[in-house]
Design the sequence.
């Protein structure tokens, strides 16, 4: 039985959304006219230092470290706290109004790509890097890429929101999403027990996708929740996360995004 019955038809209460109430809304589309800056580099990245944003700056810095000069990019900050993702030009590039968005000016006409894991895959294919060539290994890599894409909403929109950002603490959702977050960490810990990287024995876009969420969470750099989640018990995740964080391109990509 519900303690508080819901109404027959839901009505939007714009004041009930906690920290992000000013930008959360049940409709799509632009709220204002805003021209996006465009630089001279082949790739234009419109992003912010969220886990999904960090994925792309890390990927681009890894490509540059591999000598892929075509991956040079201009980074433009989109302040989602101020609603810049609802500007007219940004919405044209991504109707879903989420960061990151990549604009590839090396193509005519320029091509926009949104959804962070799609951007990773696009860049890996474009520059033939950080994606296994063997069909079996590539499929495994894509499985983990999609695992991250489908799982992180429980971590960010679920656990992160109710643990860190909700207007007041609520026991049930915190318990529910803590359980799921710890289950996901256990999935990773078991998988990494006998592996250096996520798939095919080598560093790939699967690691780049998962690390900003689960690696940084385990290392206490996301939601200030390491003690609460007892992430010290996930020793294989921590070993993997530390190795990735030590990479020069990862450091540079993280610094650029934040």
Sequence:
């Amino acid at each position: 039985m519900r303690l508080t019955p819901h109404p027959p038809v839901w009505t939007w209460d714009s004041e009930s959304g906690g920290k992000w109430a000013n930008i959360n809304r049940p409709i799509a589309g632009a709220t204002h006219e805003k021209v996006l800056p465009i630089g001279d580099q082949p790739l234009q990245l419109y992003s912010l230092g969220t886990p999904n944003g960090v994925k792309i700056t890390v990927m681009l810095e890894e490509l540059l470290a591999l000598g892929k000069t075509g991956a040079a990019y201009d980074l433009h900050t989109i302040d989602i706290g101020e609603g810049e993702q609802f500007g007219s030009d940004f919405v044209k590039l991504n109707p879903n109004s989420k960061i990151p968005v990549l604009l590839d000016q090396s193509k005519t006409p320029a091509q926009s790509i949104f959804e962070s894991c799609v951007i990773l895959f696009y860049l890996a294919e474009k520059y033939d890097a950080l994606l296994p060539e063997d069909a079996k290994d590539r499929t495994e890599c894509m499985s983990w890429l999609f695992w991250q894409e489908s799982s992180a909403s429980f971590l960010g929109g679920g656990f992160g929101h109710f643990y860190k950002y909700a207007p007041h603490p609520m026991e049930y959702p915190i318990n529910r999403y803590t359980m799921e977050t710890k289950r996901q960490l256990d999935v990773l810990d078991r998988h990494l027990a006998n592996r250096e990287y996520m798939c095919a024995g080598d560093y790939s876009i699967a690691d780049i996708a998962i690390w900003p969420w689960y690696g940084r969470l385990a290392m206490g750099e996301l939601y200030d929740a390491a003690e609460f989640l007892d992430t010290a018990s996930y020793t294989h995740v921590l070993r993997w996360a530390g190795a990735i964080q030590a990479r020069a391109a990862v450091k540079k990509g993280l610094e650029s995004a934040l």
